[in-house]
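Q: Hi! New to this. If I give you a protein sequence and the SMILES for zinc ion, can you show me the bound structure?
A: Yes, paste them in.
Q: Okay, here:
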Amino acid sequence: MDSQCEKIQNQMADYILGILNQEKVDALKHHISECEQCRAHLQSLEKEKSLLTQFSQNIDAGMDVRCGRAISALSTLKDYTTEKSIWRIIMHKKITKFAAAAVIIVAVLLVISFLDNSVTPAYAVDQTADAIREVKTVYMAGEFYMQGQFECWMKYDGDPDRPTHVWLGRAGHNLCKVCSPAGVFGLNKRTNRVHFALRDERSKDWIFKFGSFFNDIVKKAEKSDSINIDNEIDSSTGKEIIAVLIKTSKREQKFLVDPETKLPLSFSTIRDDNPLEMMKMTLVVKNLTEIRYNELPPEGIFDLPDDAVIVEEEVDCMVDPDSGLIADGMTRQEACLEIAKQTGRALVDLDIETLCKLDLFFRLYPPLIWEQIKTMKENGQWVKEVVIKGEPYQEGELWYVPIEIQGQNGKNEVQNAMIKFYEMEGKTFCFIIGSKEKGVVD
Ligand SMILES: [Zn+2]
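A: Thanks. Here is the predicted structure of the protein with zinc ion bound:
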């Protein structure tokens, strides 16, 4: 190597770090445009620079603590690194903040990886907990243990356990629930019917505590030392992501974490030996198939629509003209008998679609309950027949039909189906909204 090349190559680290003066930069650029050997040398350094930049971005407050360890570790590294290595050059040159940090991080990582190949460098679960605290909005799509698929938007003002705004909808349902400083309301997107209450539900148990969700699961596992951090390739993007696998005696759960933002991308329950325990609680999350951060929620999603029809009872939100029984051309009595008859038949046949259409109560059943009912029917423990026991009668705005539900097991139960009529889109509909014995669906 001639002396000019040697001089140029000695300046390259400074050039990459941006601390070489312009005159020397020009000379360096001119030389490498003509010298293949120096070009190759620069390329190898630039490759290392991009690695160093990545590592330096992961530097956090713990750096000072690691410094001492890292510097002492440096001496052990000389056998593993090449003469050309950029950190070696930097150590003999001007130390910029970036360079020093990068050197230390590289050194620490190298030491760690020589000692233990299973350690995923530059990630600790604390980083995810910290990152979650900074989140401003979150969109989630997933599954509750008990209530099935859902979508949710939340907005935060510093505390991801206490959202300022919540929008929650269940897949396949027109009804959504919105909590804001103004109150809480259920909105039917199909009818724009709204039931509004002034109470503030934002700190209630049913609100998903996004801030503690990750931490709580991790903490439970930390006691038994069963957190496993690994790398995984995202099949859709081909990118490397961090997988945090958490095992406890009852269940196995996994977070996939974005290596750049350290935020969870998804959450899944892989094994659950005691799902019934989780189903006893309201709205417990089983999976989050999609989590997105800091996006602007859809315009007006937390607001009462301008054309909202305010209704008195929560149940009035649940009804819509795509369901119920059209009562046009019938007397109230005839419609009551007809809806009781059709519901009774659907109950015997376990015709879920009809039951959910005519009887609002059944819309609250999650998929799991339907599975249980199917099993009951197969085992001869379901409804054998529904018999209408008397004439429909009116009390206030509600109508009732006495029915007897006869079980396959010989047990019979008399109930008074509660029926309400609605005018929607120029038609009259009726729905079974509950029973005299069990009250209105809510
Ligand atoms: Zn050269």
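A: The longest strand covers residues 412-424. Let me know if you'd like me to explain how to read the tokens.
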